[in-house]
Each structure stands twice: as structure tokens, then as C-alpha cells.
Design brief:
By secondary structure, this protein is mainly alpha-helical. It is about 75% helix and about 0% strand. The longest helix is centred in the first third of the chain and has 24 residues.
Length: about 190
């Protein structure tokens, strides 16, 4: 592992644990086993590092969600695959998932809603497809995609903290069911 890689991994862990603001460059360097100046050789500063990590994690998640939903053709099946895909991403890359779900990069006043949340785009796409096909009721797409992601985010956080009084699979199944009920008007059994 290169020093750059060590800095990136240390920063990702610390940002996911404590948040970007609460993490110092000194802490990143110490965890990476590097000098603090190493960070500045590869990045303009902590914010540049945070943005780079966000893009990297977002690309990983986009790839994971694309693979999770690539064989599903029906909008409801695709939506379920996307929701479940975030949970498997959390299982496979918990630190990356935590970082993505707890970080909003850049200036929120200037951010494009869909660009600011990497999983929002595939969710918005499947919602639009479902509305166009008449499978889903007409819903405000960015807002509904955000609601679904918020449900998933909250469930991931509860699972991570161990605060749910139910099995993990039951929590995932209930989250999937809630997402589908949100778009089909509660007609599911």
C-alpha cells in the first residue's frame, strides 16, 4: 500500500467515524503512519481529500447498484434490487457506505439534488420508469427517491448500532416493503 493509499484509507475511516469537520489532518497522518505533509503532497487539503474519497465511494456504490439491478426489468423489481443493493454494499464496504450516507460534499446551496447523493440517480431513474409505465403512482421523483434513501440510511444506521429489536433480514425486508408501498400507494399486501 502506498502512502497515498494509507492516507486515503485512514481518512475514510476517520471521516466515517467522526465526520469531516471533527477529523484533523494530524489524526489522518497518525492513523496512516505518515507525516502530515504527505497528505498535502497528494491533496490540496482535507476538503480536497474528502471530496476525492466521496467521488471514489460514490463510483463504487454506483457500480454496485448497477450490478445489483442489471437483470431486473420491471420497475418494482429494480427498486427492490436497488434498496437491497445498498444493504449489500454496506455489508461489503461498511466504511464507504457509512461515509456516503453521512456526508454531503460541497456547498449545499449550489448542489444539484441528484449529483449530491450518488444513489439518488438510479432510484430517480427507476421511479420515472415506473411512473411512465403506470406501475408506480405519480410521485415527486427527487423527493421520493430521497425519502427511500433516508429510510435505507436510517435502517443501515440502526443495524450498525445494533439498536433494532429484529433480525437484520426482517429489517431489510420491511425497508423494501416500505419503499414499494411509498410508490404504489399502499396496495401491496
Amino acid at each position: 500500500m502506498t502512502k497515498r493509499d494509507a492516507v486515503c484509507e485512514a481518512a475514510l475511516e476517520l471521516f466515517a467515524e467522526n465526520g469531516i469537520e471533527a477529523t484533523t489532518t494530524r489524526e489522518i497522518a497518525e492513523r496512516a503512519g505518515a507525516a502530515e505533509g504527505t497528505l498535502y503532497r497528494h491533496f490540496k487539503g482535507k476538503e480536497d481529500l474528502a471530496e476525492s474519497l466521496y467521488r471514489r465511494c460514490a463510483d463504487q456504490l454506483r457500480g454496485h447498484l448497477a450490478a445489483a439491478s442489471e437483470t431486473a426489468t420491471a420497475p418494482a423489481v429494480r427498486l427492490e434490487a436497488l434498496v437491497r443493493g445498498i444493504f449489500t454494499f454496506f455489508d461489503e464496504r461498511p466504511t464507504s457506505c457509512t461515509y456516503l450516507l453521512t456526508t454531503q460534499p460541497g456547498d449545499p446551496d449550489e448542489a444539484d439534488e441528484e449529483a449530491s447523493a450518488p444513489p439518488l440517480v438510479p432510484f430517480a431513474d427507476v421511479l420515472r420508469d415506473g411512473i411512465e409505465q403506470g406501475t408506480f403512482r405519480d410521485v415527486p421523483v427527487p423527493l421520493t427517491a430521497g425519502w427511500i434513501l433516508s429510510m435505507v440510511q436510517r435502517t443501515v444506521r440502526f443495524l450498525k448500532a445494533g439498536t433494532l429489536r429484529m433480525e437484520k433480514q426482517a429489517a431489510i425486508d420491511r425497508t423494501v416493503d416500505a419503499a414499494l408501498r411509498l410508490v404504489d400507494g399502499g396496495s401491496r399486501n
